[in-house]
Design a protein that fits this description.
This protein is of the alpha/beta class. The chain is 32% helix and 20% strand. It has helices at 2-17, 76-79, 109-121, 134-146, 169-173, 195-203, 218-230, 246-252, 260-263, 292-304, 312-324, 335-347, 369-378, 384-390, 393-398; strands at 36-44, 53-61, 64-70, 83-86, 91-94, 96-101, 124-129, 153-161, 182-183, 186-188, 209-212, 234-238, 256-258, 307-309, 352-353, 416-419, 433-438, 441-444. The strands form two sheets. Strands 6, 7, 8, 9, 10, 11, 12, 13, 14 and 15 form a ten-stranded mixed beta sheet that branches. Strands 1, 2, 3, 4, 5, 16, 17 and 18 form an eight-stranded mixed beta sheet that branches.
Amino acid sequence: MRLWAAFWFSVLAVSASAQQPTTSNAPFAPTETGARIVYRNASLIDGSGGPMRPDMVVVTNGQRIEAVLPNAELSPEMMAGAEVVDLGGQYLLPGLIDSHQHLATPPDRRRAEALMRRDLYGGITAVRIMADDLRPIAELARASLVGEIAGPDLYFAALVAGPSFFEDPRTKAIAAGAVPGEAPWMQKIDDRTNIPLAVAMARGTFATGLKIYANLPAHLIRALTEEAHRQGLMVWAHGMVFPTPPAQVIAAGPDVVSHTCYLAYQVSEKRPQSYQDRFPVDYARFEDGDNSVMAALFREMRRQGIILDATLRVYAEMDERAAENPEAPPYHCNTDLAAKLTSQAFREGVMISAGTDGMTPREAPNSALHEELELLATRAGMPPLQVIRSATLIGAMTIGKAGEMGTVEAGKLANLVVLERNPLDDLGNLRSVVFTVKRGRRFDRADYRPISPEEIPDDE
């Protein structure tokens, strides 16, 4: 009972914090309404995918953007009583969004806070957490929202999977004190499950989305998707929910699917029947340019507005591990094919989000999102403005918050990042952060405290 009481207390605290004023003693609290800041002489990349606009002004009021206009239209009345920040032509973008992270598998509060701090001071103002132990995640989300810690806002998933998935040792790490598969944030589903109740329990964790993970048949994927949408949850699924093939996952209508190469199983004659039994996709089916079966799949994703969380960086890490240990069993895919299919998806009009599903080493000054963005450009061939859109507007769409963030426009949250160098010349320039603004509060990169060995030991 104590375990559940602590969990529900943290959930209720998150819910309340979204509606209550922030406390004055929170060191990183959002800026209060009435505190106006005029950022002038900005080179604006607004996140919509449109061209950069020089000589622009962004006015913020508390946590919100009040106005976006050319310098020439800035009046003395607009500047009256406001703090004026002359950016001198520096580059202003929406805060970046990482659409695939894990911060509590297993939970480690100190490690998670360190990674969140690095994210925020590197320009990331929101993160989609793709299923973890939601008890500490809910508390981290609350603490970041009200400004007790420096970090991006967190939007997280409750996980569902078939009973056989819960042999995975990770499930024990994120269910400590509970039974894997029987906790609201991590449920086993079969034909005996009360689907509306299961979704309601997931929703009660304050999750934004339901993550449909593995080892489920098509009819249960569809039932979960329909019920989650009915109850107001987004649906985030793996591209193949073994044994259910990608076309049937897509037919169920999730909002986002993760991992490009899982979609490649659609053209394989033989497919893994469970998550634990994954084996390589059929590379030979992709040797002659764009695959027509994949084209049809991507067109259906475009028709339904389903976003692809490509996670190219995952496949790059697989390639590195395979090179280090060539005698190990092969991974199910490689970066070349993942990038090729992501490129085809993009050219077919599928929206691509920027998710990392991994972390850079402790000593790295920036998070893995920058590596994912560079892979989308250099390996998948996406133009820089579209890559930035993947980490801004489309990232906001993955969490159902495109009305609140993802572009620089009046009425949205004042989530911004200012760069010293032009990211359209080189996406590596996204690392040239001068300062980040989250919910109106400024975080200067010069104040960033690197992650220490005490926060993350050398062996991690």
